[in-house]
Amino acid sequence: MTAHIIDGKLFAENLRGRIAGHVERLKTEHGITPGLAVVIVGTDPASQVYVTNKAKQTAEVGMNSFKHELPGDVPEAELLALVHQLNADPAVHGILVQMPVPKHIDPNKVIEAIDPMKDVDSFTPANVGKVQIGLPGPVSCTPLGCLMLLRDHLGKLEGKNAVIIGRSNLVGKPMMQLLLRDNCTVTVAHSRTENLPEVVRQADIVVAAVGRPQMVKGDWLKAGAVVIDVGINRVPAPEKGEGKTRLVGDVDFASAAEVAGAITPVPGGVGPMTIACLLANTITTASLINGLVPPSDLTA
Ligand SMILES: Nc1nc2c(c(=O)[nH]1)N[C@@H](CN(C=O)c1ccc(C(=O)N[C@@H](CCC(=O)O)C(=O)O)cc1)CN2
User: Fold this and answer.
1) Residue 214 annotated to the active site
2) Count of domains in the chain?
3) Which residues span the domain enclosing 83?
4) In ligand 1, which atom is closest to the CA atom of 121?
5) What is the distance, to the nearest Å, from the Cα of residue 110 to the centroid of all Cα atoms in its chain?
6) Where does the Tetrahydrofolate dehydrogenase/cyclohydrolase NAD(P)-binding domain lie (predicted)?
7) Is 47 annotated as a binding residue?
8) pLDDT tens for residues 142-188?
9) Is 121 among the residues known to form the active site?
10) Mean pLDDT of the chain
């Protein structure tokens, strides 16, 4: 079997088109211009790229984009003060602090400082709880992107056996909630799971979010499984020249594509969906802040 390639880049492009339509409606029908503030601390090159892309795509869909760059040695109190200032700013409907933050800053303190009404990452305890019990609000961007790709490819997810590899707060845990909501039977596997290949072989849907380059092999998969690869790992690529690197996922794409029914590539799969879903969440929070019902096509 050669798997269907799920094109996350194309899906994200179409999603941004729909988001631009919702922005236009908020502006013309309600006089609201959604605003997203992105905060980056330090100069990590990958984070710089993500934040630049977030700011650019925010402006492209017609929203106001506010970018705040703080030095890597900024005191934690100064970052928290900026978050409080953004909480109080009526032009800002979404706040995102790019992770990871430098070691001297407690990420939990930063997350808890964000007003849950503006928490477009859905990292705050209030929003994690809302996702768990199915109340309206923002949904963690990467899991939301995975869910949209799965629904688009499979239609209904009901009754499917889903195995998530990884139990992070960012991906594994919210992904579990979303798949349960869609009536999947969900297993969350992790680094201590015994007989991991055997567990994964039971799955109709595999979400790999473990952070280990090319760990999931083709012979771990059930024939026809749908594989969503969340991993973004930079590995040496001597074939491209000395010191060069390339991006790979947590799945060994070549062997997995021989067995899977469908698979997301890296790059071009889940990554672009993360940023598109951030914009979707900003529409959700801008709507809720203004007492409007968020568009149902942008959320879980
Ligand atoms: N506050 C947050 N911090 C981080 C999040 C997050 O959702 N919120 N997620 C990741 C990084 N991330 C977004 O911030 C992100 C990662 C990857 C991509 C992406 O488009 N990847 C491309 C490849 C890009 C490349 O060449 O490096 C792809 O997969 O095609 C977008 C966003 C950690 N931090």
Assistant:
1) no
2) 2
3) 31-115
4) 8
5) 19
6) 140-287
7) no
8) 999 999 999 999 999 999 999 999 999 999 999 999 999 999 999 99
9) yes
10) 97
